[in-house]
């Protein structure tokens, strides 16, 4: 039985979900609506511990919570770049960007491009675009 077929049982601790819980929720996101999650849940889960899971979900075109996962990737990239990689390892972000460039579809290629642009020009950071979902909703490439 795959994760997609397993009934999501809820989070043992929504503030700190396990990768398996996040993955199970992502395939049944209506089971626990985002509105019922703790405030700034997207910011809470966009850290090193869950970034691989979020990346896998964002790469999966069939994942119902794909847009949420992609939004979290934008938060992760911006957080790392804005803190000069005190918050997250530069090597990990670079690997994710390279993997998205090699095997990702258009939304992932746009994320990789935008991450590279922000890395080269951190002054282009805009909280609304990177942390509130603006770039995910617009799907636009930064110049």
TrEMBL record:
<protein>
    <submittedName>
        <fullName>Uncharacterized protein</fullName>
    </submittedName>
</protein>
């Amino acid at each position: 039985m795959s994760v997609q077929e397993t009934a999501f049982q809820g989070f043992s601790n929504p503030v700190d979900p396990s990768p398996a819980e996040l993955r199970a929720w992502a395939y049944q996101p209506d089971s626990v609506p985002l509105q019922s999650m703790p405030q700034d849940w997207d910011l809470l889960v966009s850290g090193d511990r869950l970034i691989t899971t979020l990346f896998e979900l964002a790469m999966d075109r069939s994942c119902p919570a794909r847009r949420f996962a992609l939004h979290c990737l934008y938060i992760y990239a911006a957080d790392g770049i804005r803190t000069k990689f005190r918050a997250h390892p530069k090597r990990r972000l670079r690997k994710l960007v390279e993997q998205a460039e090699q095997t990702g579809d258009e939304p992932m290629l746009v994320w990789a491009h935008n991450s590279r642009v922000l890395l080269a020009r951190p002054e282009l950071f805009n909280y609304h675009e990177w942390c509130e979902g603006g770039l995910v909703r617009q799907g636009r490439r930064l110049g």
